[in-house]
Amino acid sequence: MSAIVQTLVDGTKKILNPGRVCATTGLSVCRTAQQFIKLNAVSAVVFLLIGGVAALLLALTRWQTVHLLNAEWFYRIVTLHGLNMLIFWILFMEVAILYFCCTTPLNSKLFSKKVAWVSFGMMLTGALMVDYIILQGQADVMMTSYLPLLAHPLFYLGIILVAVGTLIGVFNFFATLYIAKRDKTYEGSVPLVTFGATAAAIIAVVTLLHGAIVMIPTFTYSMGWTPQPDPMWYRLIWWGLGHQSQQVNVCAMVSVWYFLASVTTGARPLNEAVCRTAFVLYVLFINLASAHHLLVDPGIGATWKIWNTSYAMYLAVLASMIHGFTVPASVEVAMREKGYVRGLFGWLTSAPWGNPGFSGFFLSLVIFGFGGGITGVTLGTQQINIIAHNTLRIPGHFHVTVVGGTTLSFMALAFYVIPLIFEKDFIWRKAARLQPYLFGIGIVMLAVGMSFAGSMGVPRRSWDIDVAGVYGPAAHLMLGFVGVGGIIAFVGLLLFVLLCVGTLFFGKSTKGRAMTDWGVAKAPAGVAVTRLEEHDLSATKGTFAMVLIFLACFAVYYFANWKALADVWPVR
Amino acid sequence: MSSILVPERGWFRAPAGHEKIWIGLALSWCLVLTVMMPYWHFRGKQNSRGEAYAVVPTEFAARVDRFIAANKVGESNGVPIVEPAPGGDAFVLARMWSWNPILKLRKGETYRVHLSSLDLQHGFSLQPLNMNFQVMPGYDHVLTLTPTSAGSFTIVCNEFCGIGHSNMIGHIIVE
Ligand code: HEM
Ligand SMILES: [Cu+2]
Ligand SMILES: [Cu+2]
What we know:
The structure holds two protein chains of two kinds. Chain A has helices at residues 31-62, 71-103, 113-135, 153-182, 192-222, 231-265, 272-285, 302-337, 346-349, 356-379, 393-420, 429-455, 473-506, 541-566, and strands spanning 4-7, 13-17, 20-21, 28-29. Chain A is an all-alpha fold. In chain A, the strands form two sheets. In chain A, strands 1-2 form a two-stranded antiparallel sheet. In chain A, a hairpin with a 5-residue loop joins strand 1 and strand 2 (13-17). The longest helix of chain A has 36 residues, at 302-337. Chain B is an alpha+beta fold. Chain B folds into two domains: 13-47; 51-174, Cupredoxins -  blue copper proteins (Immunoglobulin-like, Sandwich), CATH 2.60.40.420. In chain B, 24% of the residues lie in helices and 37% in strands. Chain B has two helices and twelve strands. Chain B has helices at 17-43, 57-71; strands at 52-54, 72-76, 79-82, 89-95, 98-100, 102-105, 111-117, 122-127, 131-135, 139-145, 151-157, 169-174. In chain B, the strands form two sheets. Chain B has a seven-stranded mixed beta sheet. A five-stranded mixed beta sheet of chain B has the order 1-10-7-4-5, covered by helices on one side. The radius of gyration of chain B is 24 Å and the shape is elongated. In chain B, 45% of the residues are buried. The interface between A and B is large, with 108 and 85 residues. The site of one copper (II) ion has 7 residues of chain B, from loops.
């Protein structure tokens, strides 16, 4: 309850934050921020549930043997799923994360409650408009709404509202950074998670501006006020929104990794300078990455495609590969310091796998790295895209980035957000410990099915593949994987939603006490904690072995795809 | 110390140990990735140059009709089968929900295949090869294509184009 009081050099006392002190961490929590973290997170989970029900229907339709929905509803539900998941669930969660990262770690209060209301109100109104108009059957255009496909104007207006609402939330974040600096609520540099969140926010601004540039003329066209924008121009700018927003997600996810690594194992960043530089690389080098959605498009030359793919992408890839090392390495160091030094991987096997904050985060790291990263770079290679574009390989890729990666890390985060911000201890703790595995395994299976089906030429966003008469039993088997993996992932998702909602209603209050520990890593009794440094090779050898395996997998997959490409007809 | 706390002073230092080695390895790998694309552009046989010309959709449809009239060699279920001259131009029109005409090509010959759409965006996905290209209204997308295997190939539409999307099937025959 008490405010944070800082004694200044001249002896006067200054009240920094009219918030409460967290009984678990001793950090201060701004009440306004807390209120909006709650509002945004609850909305996020509601949209996750809508998107999840849609996901189940889709998985059961693409599973050709079940083929649940009819064509009309399949396309409607694809549209619903894409928007509710990729846009609404993710953006509401991200605004919540931004509000957290600019207040508690900086010991600051949120800049403005009014601005937060405006942002939240616009986002919610927009999202509800979009969902309403989709379910009315007035916007069967997929989330990409490629012109000349045309939806009801409310669809575009809804998306514009969500985008502008998010921008306003991002403004609130920057304004909070500013007042925190001005009021000197902290000394020195901002903590790493805040730095990562700032990178995400900067990219979000650029991204959302692209959204405005492309959506506003499309909206005015749908109203009959202006002529139709060029469809190729639309694709170019739309992917300035669509792709860069994925970099926002990556930044947010990596920040969550750092956060959860610290909270569950006591890890500290190995080298702050390296981690921060990697975030800066995201900001600098992602701006042109819309290119890799246009690699087999007409009207765009090879030079432009190659330059934008490599220039914009590979230094951002470098950044991800750096985080992919520093995050597990920081965990390894923290575990070894606590005395878990056995062999290469003793630190990993002794990690708190029963803690859903840890297992969720570490699975997210592995799935994102081995699954999403390797496939993303390969599919996004200019020429290899010829054998991948618009096949199920593409959703196969992004279900292990934004779902197995980002979504799973956000779920893992919730196992701490709810006790710390909503001040409720989780119910059904055994089920909670299983949840990350269930969701993770389901998504991996789904993505494997999609990827292999896609390699056999099965198109994405297609209601039926049997008319073509070219897909054999292997492709159908892979679609079975999509179905079964989809069901498992859905059960994991539903369990997550039930856990969250159930906890809000029935969880024991944690007010005034520490949250019940999920089981964070601790040194065994009698072991003295030592401090290891980055240059100590024995402190990070397990992680180093892991990343070498990763690099080998990467190279094999990458060159196997060049080989597959070399086998198709010559084309220029 | 922790990632949620303000870092200790003097946090700005060079990487060391495995981290330093990894950054070097990762950077080298990124360079390999970067070099592969221009390399393939010059040495590889499969490239997407995006060669395209602005075209009014109805004008493209008229070209396709002239192409069919001049080179028609047969019909399959009402869809014309058309055999362009080796080395020459071939045209395929995508519309909701058909590909017209059926091309008959010769193995080992090179053709300039023009793709465009009369209405929405479509996806040219050649199966079972799994080669994929975007088809846009208003753009005459030219693929300089050399069939190197014989047989009957199927064009599947893989860009969503309305309720009949999954029925949008076409054919290419190679002899
Ligand atoms: C239970 C978990 C999930 C399952 C079973 C699932 C399943 C699917 C399926 C079957 C498709 C259709 C693929 C196609 O026919 O083209 C799809 C598309 C998609 N999913 Fe998911 N998904 C899940 C979670 C998510 C989440 C959490 C996100 C985002 C954060 C997401 C983002 C997308 C997107 C963006 C598309 C593409 C929509 C489009 O093509 O317009 N999915 N998903
Ligand atoms: Cu089509
Ligand atoms: Cu189609």
